[in-house]
Protein: Transcriptional regulator, LysR family
Amino acid sequence: MTLKQLEYFLEIARLGNVTRAAQSLNISQPPLSLQLKSLEDELGTPLFRRDKRHLEITPAGKLLQERAQAILALLDETTGDIHALSTEKQITLRIATIGSVNNRLLPNLIARFSRDYFYVNFRVIEGRTEHVLEHVTSGDVDFGFVREPFNTSHFRSVLIHDPALAPGQSDHFVTIAQPQFYDAYYEGDSRDTIEIDELKDKPLIIHQRYREMILGACRKRGFNPYIICENDEIHSSLSWARAGIGIAIAPYTSAILSIDPGLVIRRLTFTAFIPWVRLVWNPSCQLSSEALAFMNMI
Structure:
């Protein structure tokens, strides 16, 4: 049974004649008769009593007429409601995010969310953690994705598990460099970790947000690091490492965005800090139901 068959049946019932119904539907009479017969065969009962000039609807036909009218009316109402949602109710979620989340995590989250909230549009602003926090503070965005550390006193936040990490695994710092920057690499040293002491006298490329942390860790081991470059963006640090300028230090989930096959990545056994990613929002700003639904989905 199809919607088209129901439409044909209702027109026949309205006019009481197959020929006139065919004319009204702008189709020929034989195909319409075949559609009616197919419907009756499927239901296992006649829908009309036939005489030479008129069709009289049967009790089964009367029941189908009532149900078909309700079905088609509900279909029209549903179509109208969906059209109204998609054309009139335009909700924009405003999201500020660091680059690593925007490149890997956020697209999948938006794809999942859009299956149920198809009428929602997105405005995404990418920047460093401090810029994301500025947007969240001012209310320019509904929420943001940042990486620790940051001042949590003015925000509410939840920890985000990155799918790039295995269950139970935490993010961590890694070094990224061409092989020649690792001592004994060509002597078969295939370790996947590196001690912070091994960075002494090595040219380091760091993100400015982690400067004090790295300085403190090195000084605890009795040396001042040789920082050849400080960057504001992780991808810039990776580009410098790719160019053979030095050893970049970055969170693992940021580093894997653009690791070159010619680079060697090792886990830095410096565990004083885990660079977690967090979703943050301003508790003084009222969030839409769609924004809350997105946050609850994570």
